[in-house]
Write a structure and sequence with these properties.
Blueprint: H1 3-11, E1 22-26, E2 29-30, E3 33-34, H2 36-51, E4 55-62, H3 64-74, E5 82-86, H4 95-109, E6 113-117, H5 120-133, E7 136-146, E8 151-158, E9 163-170, E10 175-179, E11 198-201, E12 230-234, H6 244-254, E13 257-260, H7 262-266, E14 287-291, H8 297-300, E15 308-313, H9 320-323, E16 326-329, H10 332-358
Parallel strand pairs: 1-4, 1-6, 4-5, 5-11, 6-10, 7-10, 12-13, 12-14, 14-15, 15-16
Antiparallel strand pairs: 2-3, 7-8, 8-9
Helix pairs in contact: 1-4, 4-5, 6-10
């Protein structure tokens, strides 16, 4: 019997032994750190579970070398059971290896819904996993909730974000969902770490033909801004395409991607792929620097989930300051070069200290 037919017959049940339907969140890690989208998915799963009389749990695929740090990080957030799959070949993401491990895990757990982030890895893995398991697939989702007549109502984006598609799925249909990062609120940390209910799983992935050797950090100049950890965006206030020179200089110093407001894109100062906002891309980096951007609502919708927001503007009344963690009132052509120089100086000093410690 094929893997697909096994999955189809087993997953369609309510749950193992009549258990409540399982919503399984696939945690995503990079360089041993849990990515923010994981906690956004967990927030959605916690909201959905009671409405379908189900339960939420989390799965983490990693290597024994990286598991301790990742589990320690998850302890700050989780109250759900953690399914831990460890193997040396799972240290770095590889399509075949992760697909093989998840096929084994899903056949054991028989989840009703599997949630992934619509990240580069999630977009790669989601459709393949759905095909392998014989499950439905709903990509790039914005919202999922329990509907009427025993259905799941799902809102997702299509056509490059220009169209919102609403669909209804029968509740009994096993489903894999990729959720757009930066849309949902991440769950909050616990006041103090707690002991996790960890269930360990053993899988054999050695037969895979492809192995990931090591991850190579993305180049922010070519990286999709949705995947960037730091973004520096320019708006009308930069004054023209030449004004983006200081934006790029700061981005280089921060090892950040360059973004832009809709106005800057509409004026032809920068390409559409860099647009942040309701009609562009939603980003949720660790650091978002808004330069010469007033803070219109359609722009805020695309970046307000950022961990830290820094605004540079000459208008004291600019709405961007209301959502910023730090604000600089001043001329960007004076502020940004000084900031770039100070960052490079700090990096050089830190490098000298590190090299001195090695002697």
């Amino acid at each position: 019997m094929s893997a697909t037919s096994v999955a189809s017959s087993s997953i369609s049940e309510t749950g193992s032994g009549g258990d409540p339907p399982l919503i399984l969140v696939l945690a995503e890690s990079f360089w041993g750190h849990i990515q923010k989208v994981t906690f956004e998915l967990l927030g959605d799963a916690r909201k959905l579970a009671p409405s379908i009389k189900g339960r939420a749990e989390v799965a983490l695929l990693t290597s024994p070398l990286k598991s301790e740090g990742a589990v320690r990080e998850l302890r700050l957030y989780l109250q759900e059971r953690l399914h831990l799959v460890e193997h040396s070949l799972l240290e770095n993401y590889s399509t075949d290896t992760h697909l093989c491990a998840l096929e084994v895990l899903l056949n054991r757990l028989r989840p009703r819904i599997v949630m992934l982030g619509a990240t580069a890895n999630g977009r790669d893995l989601g459709p393949r996993l759905a095909a392998r398991m014989g499950m439905g697939y709903a990509p790039h989702c914005l919202l999922i909730r329990s509907g009427t007549a025993g259905r799941l109502d799902i809102t997702r984006i299509s056509h490059g974000g220009r169209v919102h598609v609403q669909s209804a799925w029968p509740m009994e249909t096993p489903l894999i969902i990729t959720m757009k990062p930066g849309v949902a609120d991440a769950v909050a940390t616990h006041p103090s770490p707690r002991e996790l209910n960890v269930e360990r799983h053993t899988v054999d992935v050695r037969k895979n033909r492809v192995r990931a050797i090591e991850p190579i950090p993305a180049d922010p100049k070519t990286q999709d801004i949705r995947e960037a950890e730091r973004v520096v965006s320019g708006g009308r206030g930069v004054g023209g395409p030449e004004g983006f020179a200081v934006i790029r200089e700061l981005a280089d110093a921060l090892h950040a991607a360059v973004g832009a407001s809709r106005v800057a894109v509409d004026l032809g100062w920068i390409e559409y792929a860099r647009q942040v906002g309701q009609t562009g891309k939603a980003v949720a980096p660790q650091l978002y620097v808004a330069v010469g951007i007033s803070g219109a609502s359609h722009h805020l919708m695309g970046m307000r989930s950022s961990d830290k927001i820094v605004a540079v503007n000459t208008d004291r009344q600019a709405p961007i300051f209301a959502v910023s963690h730090f604000g600089v009132l001043g001329d960007l052509h004076k502020v940004l070069p000084q900031l770039s120089d100070r960052i490079r100086q700090h990096k050089a000093e830190a490098k000298d200290v590190t090299e001195s410690a090695k002697v």
